[in-house]
Amino acid sequence: MPELPEVEIVVRNLNDIVIGKKLKATKLWRKDVRFPIPDKIIQKIVNGENKLLNIHRRAKFIVIEFADYLIISHLGMTGAWSTHKGQLSQYTPKKHDHLALGFEDGKDKELWLIYNDPRRFGFVHAIRKQDLATYFANYGFEPLEMNDQQIEELYQQAKKSKSPLKTFIMNQKNIVGVGNIYACEALFLAELSPFKIASKVKKESFLKLVQAIKKNLKQAISKGGSSIKNYRNVNEEEGSFQKSHLVYGKEKTKCTRCKTGIIVRKVQAGRSTFFCNACQR
Q1: What is the pTM of this model?
Q2: Domains of the chain
Q3: Catalytic residue positions, numbered
Q4: pLDDT digit string, tens, across residues 52-65
């Protein structure tokens, strides 16, 4: 947590708030999160062509684009961006605030983006724009953007894989952004066992799974993502998709589809896997 839908919501929030504004200053309350914060490179952005051009998502990363550099943020398990309008001196730092990016917000006004991360598994990197392709070279297909050719390539990868199906779709080298929650939900929608070996899945079933992944992620985005524990968007609002989960966190409840099976929780690759013991095969 957060997974693709939650990161997508944050990206959309940030685009609404800071696109076109100039980065004017930074503030570090600590020098590192998971990795050292690249303050020297961020200062180059402040001192150079510092208008924010675009913010987009790649996998579970937030990519903040300036003329020559990119700031790349990963939220880890508990990371969050929030805003403060006005002078930073008027802001009382919260526990676990680590970094603030200050933007020009109209004449003599300021807007600050503040990164908070209690567990510090997230991070903030900064790279040259020309290095973007290399940075993401080992990441797989974007599930919401896959065309027919990419789906076929993904299927051929699955045919060579000895991994369980859930492990395969959570492997960021194959397909990105599908974390534990949405893997469980998509496999349920596709009526496939999370433990089935990927190479044993027939093409028709695999295509059904791809569509289930897309449908599930789109529904989650439309409902602001899932707030299980820590997730809040930039406006510090919870998502509501957790209310629509069909299997995740539903251990020992009756299956809503087949009405006979029970939702079971098993540990798989160190994570909780939720599935119906009757209709997922």
Answers
A1: 0.94
A2: 4-135 (3.20.190.10), 148-276 (1.10.8.50)
A3: 2-3, 60, 271
A4: 999 999 999 999 99
